[in-house]
User: Fold these one by one.
Assistant:
Number 1:
Amino acid sequence: MTDRTAMLPESFLFLLGQEEKRRQQREDAGLPVLTMLIDAAHSGSGQARHIRRFLLGLYNASHWPFELNRLRALDTELQQAALQVLALDWNGREVHTYVPGGDELFQAWWEWEVGT
């Protein structure tokens, strides 16, 4: 414990610890399903475009606003995955940074979606 944390009230330190646990839980649940969504976004299924749009909405919401009706086009497993990735996004880290080469991947989707 550092001198600075020693001066904080114990209840505040407890709350910080609880929030860190929740952040880690969101990451543990979100990373595997992020990979699943990325794989599905590359598939030839009719759901792929909706998934790309969802992920692009997390990447740049002002340019890629996501229509919630698109979630209805996804099967239940992909819907749940999208919600877990949305929770992961709440951790304060850009979703594409969890993926090696994520910026390039999302930029490629951007260009693909602009062209369609």
Note: The chain has a mean pLDDT of 91.
Number 2:
Amino acid sequence: MLQQQTRTNSRGETYVIGPTGAPLTKNDLPPPNTGRWVIRRKAEVVAAVRGGLITLEEALERYSLTNDEFLSWQRSIERHGMAGLRTTRLQQYR
């Protein structure tokens, strides 16, 4: 797993580089009540955990995810990039 460094912006907020290449702060993360998980949101949560912005435990609790669900997102990104997170392509990437 590729580990990122956390950085601090001019407002003193900790951030990591998100999946689109833009800075990602805790305020930029999907809301806790997210019901529709699009590719970008999944990738943002994975990037936040990888970069140390939030812990795995925080992510699981905040988003009501199982460990297996999060790890499957992470594996899909590692193997196939963000396209691997498409639910319509799940069979193709297995």
Note: The mean pLDDT is 88.
Number 3:
Amino acid sequence: MGETRRMRVFSLGLQHVLAMYAGAILVPLIVGRALNLTAEQLAYLVSIDLLTCGIATLLQARKGKYLGIGLPAVLGSSFVAVTPMIAIGSQYGVTAIYGSIIAAGIFIVLCAVFFSKIVKLFPPVVIGTVVTIIGLALIPTGIRNMAGGVGSKEFGSLQNLALSFGVLIFILLLNRFSRGFIRSLSVLIGILAGTIAAAFMGKVNFSAVQDASWFHLPKLFYFGVPSFEIGPIITMIIVGTVVIIESTGVFFALSKICEQPINEKDLARGYRAEGLAFILGGIVNAFPYNTFAQNVGLVQLSKVKTTNVVVAAGGILIFLGLIPKIAAFATIIPASVLGGATVVMFGMVVSSGIKMLQAVDFSKQSNLLIVACSVSLGLGVTAVPDLFAQLPQSIRIIVSDGIITGSLAAILLNVIFNLSSKQQDVPVQQAQEIHS
């Protein structure tokens, strides 16, 4: 009987891994390719990301004295950090990325109690606007990949367009005609199908898989000793704040599904776990991490609300992260295939943000202005990154990213318009409806 139960927990944990796997590997692939990393470096980035996702998930799963929300949450690399990491790496070098991530992690750990006390500053109008901006700012990256990726000699070729739109259509068909588990894996299945089709077209190089080893241990500071620059550090601290805002909504969603109320102390423990995941990501040269929203739907779908399942998922991720051969398979995915899948995923981020905004009272002019100005600034800076080109570099790196600019606008405008009110237009706890 015990063996049957263990197998059930393992299979449910594997389901969580499969549901978040596409999102977990997309961030290292997008960032690594934008920074022109070698195939070997890219394989390391993917494998260390999987391993760190597993460790971060374990940190969050158990409710300790100081760490862990104690809910069935799965952590993965944050989409919020994609464009800031690319900008920092391009201007200051890769080592500055990891110095800023470590600094941001320390900031989150030290300020966890403070964040838990100001959670009223993150009502649905802020969370929904921030998530919408994240999706809108990332879509251009997906579109460029659909054409073959920046710098591709075959940019916009018929083959690239056929692959990317083929993957997009295949994912849509799976969502239209499949149910349950298959539907939840539609993006991953689409990527696999697209890569197989690309292989028949001669667009896949398997040398990275052949050259990869079967086992490795994580290396501290793989890309070099981290450097600490004030501009990147401030940028990543803002990224960390946005991650906290996003995770707050997920925590309340899980709290509602699991019928397990959470308070300020629980939130502080959850924030500390995410801050520690940031620090770990910086040390092993991985990524900032946040609670993955797509796994919340899986908890609701499976009706399994114990943390044992996500502990199993964390163990599976750690195992996968120790095998570079598996990580190397992710690096052979053509950019056009990746683009077809990311357009869906980034579009779903936008949809999630719009769903969150349904809880907002738009009869109030202040809420309309918060969304209007924040989205306009976020999307505007993404479309015209040279808007702040004349500012000093340390300031420019902060405001030249659409996600950061739009998120800061949403937070500040909410303080200006709504903080003085005795009661927020919608209680923060209603953020639990975000992903349900």
Note: Residues 422-436 have pLDDT under 50 and may be disordered.
Number 4:
Amino acid sequence: MPVREIPMYIDGQPVTSQSQAWRDVVNPATQDVVARVPFCTADEVERAVASAKTAFKEWRKVPLGKRMRIMLKLQALIREHTPELAALITEEHGKTLPDAEGEVGRGLEVVEHACSITSLQLGELADNAANEVDVYTMHQPLGVGAGITAFNFPIMLPCFMFPLAIATGNTFVLKPSEQDPSSTMRLVELAHEAGIPAGVLNVVHGGPEVANQIADHQDIKALSFIGSTHVGSLLYNRSAAAGKRMQAMMGAKNHCVVMPDANRSQAIDSLLGSAFGAAGQRCMANSVVVLVGEAREWLDDIVQGARGMTVGPGTQRDADLGPLVSPQAKERVERLITAGEKEGAKLMVDGRGCTVEGYPDGNFVGPTLFADVTAEMTVYREEIFGPVLCVVSVDTLDDAIAFINANPNGNGTSIFTNSGWVARRFETDIDVGQIGINVPIPVPVAYFSFTGSRGSKLGDLGPNGKQAIAFWTQTKTVTARWFEPENVSSGINSTISLG
């Protein structure tokens, strides 16, 4: 099987990097090398930024209607090529094909939302705000934008960034994850096939050096980041020092509250899917279930459900979860499971040593479940990013709310209940940015903004929805008065009154 050589994308063309540093991209189910990706040189990053800066001069002038038609073409191409994109995701990330197809669908939602740019980027007008004075606002592009994405959603996360940035008139430099870049690159090719002009969308690859260069670069006006809290915090501070706008969606520890009045089978199936789907490699995975009152009696059913889940390669369509992305990820998850045992959590289901017939080298960890977890334990404090579910039992809804609010993260939480009063109380008192009510993974549809909070987010504006339009544009306010040709001045006005 030939090994792909991942190019950069600069000035509308795939470009082979001249870097001496390349990294293997490995199929996590087999350890076969499927591609090689460069760690671009500083000069290559400069080239990409310069291309975007040059292209901005003309792209910002392109009419909204033409930008809309490009996005319409792009969404049609993504829909047509969904099987191809999903297969590339599965080959390099490891998630199951149905899950990968679902990821492409969530990315497609954002592109579809960008197709509404002719109404999303409208300003406001106050006619005759003062005597023959009109005041109006314009939402204009910033210039060159940039995005740095994590490995876990190589299609959805870039779609959280460049479609709306470009649709609003900016140009873009994207740095996808070096762990699974092929699907992202195919997405970029489709964007150019849809009609995005040369230089409007550029791609570079690399590690911390490239990310830091992007954060520091004076010609990049805004940066969107999705990844770990450690990296996001460092890039946020560097971007602030460079005077650029920044949004950072970072780590999480999401909780699923189960009330005793919930539909038992629906709640259990939902929490298991949200905890173990994609092998737990989701920033919105519910990695903690909080059983309230008599719901603690459901633990045995949750355990049996976890034991009954199927582990297999991503190409096995009936598999519930595939491998972790790398041997290093597997080693880390198994190390944290061992730490949970040592610290006194009750290991009900152990996914270590998981083997899959025909795939002896795969990075497989099976569903793992701890009971009697407390807030002091490592398995609770750290974001495991693997198929590990922590079970906490409390007496009341108040206890559940207090427990969740004490956690520093605020990405997402959910509750399963049949009580409208309980749901309303929960959504009012919980201090978390995204809430699901009988919905296990509360990522909102793309025309609403992604609103993680507290330790899970830096920056005031998140991806998608109205917040993304605000993030990728600057507001200009114009105060205008036009005089009749024969109008005679009434004299000098030295006050601030518009008169």
Note: The chain has a mean pLDDT of 96.
